[in-house]
Specification:
Radius of gyration: 24 Å
Number of strands: 0
Structural class: mainly alpha
Shape: globular
Order of helices and strands: HHHHHHHHHHHHHH
Largest sheet: none
Helix content: 55-70%
Strand content: under 5%
Number of domains: 1
CATH class: Mainly Alpha
Number of helices: 14
CATH topology: MetI-like fold
């Protein structure tokens, strides 16, 4: 039988534990308050101060949102953007990183110009003119095409691929495999942790798509849920469209409806984190840049 390893806590460890626990509570409280408040009746919401618990939970706000259904049109767009964008960006970023991990004439110059894109950007007006020239205005592709390759994640993946044993690729080439087949049959299966970690970052980024929807999309059916949520919070026009129930119904008000919408938008992306958590730390360690 294996021996149980017991760790003796020092005073420093105790204070670190207390500090991290307080920090965790401070960070989780806003989300907890949002969920709890969305389940409150109007009278309880107006009279509660800290909103830690619900005395009389109700789903009235959620029922109103489901009856209106507007948010789900924007959720569908955001889901498509997230799924398609993550797959496309992950593939092209990984494949570009694999190609740049090989030594070739002028590779350092190519990497220099790629890294420069992290620091030098054209700006909003040139972007708009380019997108208009390529027909991307009011086009779903404007959410995907400009973000097919992320420079920062490309550098992380490139470092990971450079650490692969060259013997594996040489053996595959002797068996008649080309670079494309090596990439799919050897490189990608061995890179699952870093792909999962970076894929999670891509998912969060595409899920939070907002600026592209504001500046490059005018078609309401192509708007993302983030812009819809922002308009719901800052204006009353969208909110009035939801609050169409009979007057005098107890159970919700404008604030609980706003909070319920926030919860609906947060839940899908939060549910992904536990599924990819086991790959997160390992993936970042694999892709760390060595000095």
């Amino acid at each position: 039988m294996g021996k149980t390893i017991r760790r003796n806590w020092s005073i420093g460890d105790f204070f670190i534990f207390i500090a991290l626990s307080i920090l965790c509570v401070v960070m989780l409280y806003p989300f907890w308050q949002t969920v709890v408040s969305s389940l409150m009746t109007e009278s309880e919401y107006l009279t509660s101060t800290f909103k830690l618990f619900v005395k009389s939970p109700t789903l009235a706000s959620y029922k109103q949102i489901f009856q209106d259904g507007t948010i789900f049109m924007h959720l569908k767009v955001t889901f498509l953007v997230t799924i398609v964008g993550t797959v496309v960006a992950l593939f092209f970023t990984a494949y570009s990183a694999y190609g740049l991990s090989k030594s070739f004439k002028g590779s350092k110059i190519v990497m220099f110009f790629i890294v420069m894109t992290m620091f030098v950007q054209a700006g909003l007006i040139p972007d708009y003119m380019n997108y208009k020239e390529f027909g991307l205005i009011n086009n779903f592709a404007v959410y995907i095409l400009p973000y097919m390759i992320n420079t920062f994640y490309l550098i992380i993946m490139r470092t990971t691929f450079m650490e692969f044993p060259k013997e594996l690729e040489e053996a595959a080439k002797m068996d008649g495999c080309d670079h494309f087949r090596i990439f799919f049959t050897i490189v990608l299966p061995l890179s699952k942790p870093v792909l999962a970690a970076i894929g999670l970052f891509f998912m969060v980024s595409f899920w939070n798509t907002y600026m592209q929807s504001v500046f490059f999309i005018t078609d309401k059916e192509l708007k993302t849920v983030q812009e819809y949520l922002q308009s719901l919070i800052t204006s009353t026009q969208e909110l009035e469209a939801i609050m169409v129930a009979e007057s005098g119904v107890e159970g919700y008000n404008s604030e609980t409806i706003r909070l319920a919408n926030i919860v609906i938008v947060l839940l899908p992306i939060i549910s992904v984190y536990p599924l990819l958590q086991k790959y997160f730390v390992k993936g970042l360690m694999m892709g760390s840049i060595k000095g």
